[in-house]
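Person: I keep going back and forth on a fold encoding question. Show me how you would write down a chain together with its backbone fold. Please set it down just below, with no commentary around it:
Helper:
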Amino acid sequence: MKISTYIFELLQSQDCVIVPNFGAFVARNISAKISSDGSKIFPPNKELSFNKNVVKNDGLLLNAIASNENINYEAAEQKIINWVKRVNKKLEKQKYIEIKNIGSISLENSKYIFIPNQSSIFLKSSYGFNSIDSSYIIRQQKNINNSYLKYAAMLIVFLSLTGLFTKSYFDSVNEFNKASYAEANLEIEKKIQKATFNINASLPVVKLPIRKQYGSFHIVAGSFRLEENSLKMISQLKDKGFIESRKVGVNKFGLIQVAYNSYDTVEEARIALSDIRAKEDINAWLLIKN
């Protein structure tokens, strides 16, 4: 499979894919939009940008290649190095490259200019939707009654708001978790204050239904086919002091992924990843998963 295909597939589930020593493709959700010339209507999607300054290997692309092709990390790393050499050579010679399904990069006055592929769909909820020719809609207006026009308008508004609803949902979850912890602390303080009036009385037990919430950024220690091997790895990591070590799901190849720890922000995760690679395992990598 080509490197561009790995990048495309990873961007469908990740917000950032780093190509070591080349740059990072960054994706953000956007709502439905109309082309600059007004001729087309595009469904909700992920908008891509390219950052030439982010080149440090985070293991995501490397692990995808190694797992999919059943090769070791050194062989996967060499495939990336060869791809980067070919791309840079073509950029130096022709000042332009086209990365299939991703977009084009041109080199002008030592600056990298990236133009994303407008026809590629990266947002899974928009699979099956294609861009619509606005002139077609105008031609069909005479044959559609007002009620159908209302439904069409409602559909466009719904698609436009999909991204906003998704963000709003996760924001509400975070707010609920913060409120739950605050409520728990308040109840505990009240119980303790009441108990101090009677030194001989034992403190009452406070039981509140609070579910532990892990972050979305996980430092992966390994992937295992057998359950017993994953449990053994978790036990070893806990013995080393990684008390939050746990299973973080099963990948598309049926392998159980075990993480050293999980973090709320990508900055915390990257700092931890650098430390773990230096002290524990150079092959540790970052998984972004809710």
